[in-house]
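I have been asked to look over a protein record a colleague put together. The record follows directly below this note.
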Amino acid sequence: MTGKIVLRRIKKVLPVCLALAMPVCSSAQGGRGSATQSRLPSAPIPQQTTPPATSSAPRTEPQSNSPQSNVPPGSAPQSSPGTPTLLSLKDAQALALKNNPQISVARLTALAAQQVTREVRSNLWPAVKVDLTAVDAYAGSRITAGALNNPIIYQRAAAGTMVSQLITDFGRTTNLIASANLAAKAENQNAMATKEQILLAVDQAFYNALQTQAVLTVAQQTVTDRQTVADQVGALYKNKLKSELDFSFANVNLAQAKLLLLDAQNNQNAALASLSAVLGFSSLQNFQLAEDTGAITPPQNNVDDLIATAFAMRPDFLSLEFQVESAKKFHTAERDLFFPDIEALGAVGDTPVRNPIVSSWYGAVGVNVEVPVFNGFLFSARAREAALKAQAVQERLRDLRDRISRDVRTSWLNATTAYDRLAVTQQLVEQANLALNLAQARYKLGLGSIVELSQAQLQQTQAQITNAQAGYDCRLALAVLQYQTTGL
């Protein structure tokens, strides 16, 4: 009698168990089939239960027939809020170089520095000026106050030209020209350094946006999977096949997944806002980011060669070297203030309206030698100031050399570690997927607890997020290493 009652209960519960077990089995095996893949968004992230086949940074190839794929680099995307614009890394870099205001500021500053050279060089050219003078004076009047001389004033109206030409100042002007020219070259290198900084910022924003997009897709799939588990455990709990503890744990896991999804959505929006800003847009742009399909190569083995390359090619280092030479030339020019200035002068003109005592025309030539004797130690102080500033710039160059050596070595270590993490994170995903499959099978057979299943789900989510981030971290680390050495 008892056996028949048990048999009837089994027949009653068996269809429910089979109906609930089938989604669990399909979810556990989804990584080996196409069912799970069909539920995933098209964002470039690893599948929920399948380890990446070729790389730890999964890729999504842009469709060749997409109308956005023909957008030329450097053109500002014009799209409606609902139509995303396909954007590759090269397109983003071209847009930033075209639109970012810091690029314009650096370029204009370099052009302004070139004009300083022309300003200083003008001292070597003749200075010509034309004077038109008309004077109405009281007869026989003289200027008797304000100076030691006592000139008489005649009524006159005259026009004339005065010419002055520097003969020599014993190298001061040529040293000032050389200093200004070197300063202009330094500004050109600063403009190049600004360009490299903007390109690095674009790479950081672009890879960060791809990374947050990958994490968002992992979070969406995690919510879907944990919702399925929560529904299954809830149905079993209603039929008295699972305890309230199992039902509570399943809902806690679902709530954690939803919190992860909210954080991922916020991070993605923030990343897109940062990307839009560095590209020179004041408003948030609707971009569809194209995956970087370039091969990931390990960094160079010899870091000392990279440091030597950085000293030879980094624009900020070259700029400071030009500043050092400019400061030395300026110090020499300030020291030349102690030498005399020799200048040729000439004047010619006509006086159609004049006092009879005044000639109808005038002309004169002469040479003026100005010898500095004493001016309160002004020139010596200026020379000393210039020497101290030149020494300060030299020390700045030495400090920059030390920082470049440190930055290149640090970025090389980061790039090497990031490259080594690729294989490790891929293995982590494989093991996490296997652990989750086993935990699901044990829980379905009643051999495992909900705690074991929850731990396996958490480990898989963390492994997928780490794996999705590893590829972009490696690409960004390689970009930083290139920026620190040869520039992007």
Q: What stands out?
A: DSSP finds ten helices and six strands in the chain. Residues 1-7, 9-80 have pLDDT under 50 and may be disordered. The first strand starts at residue 85 and ends at 87. The longest helix spans residues 378-445.
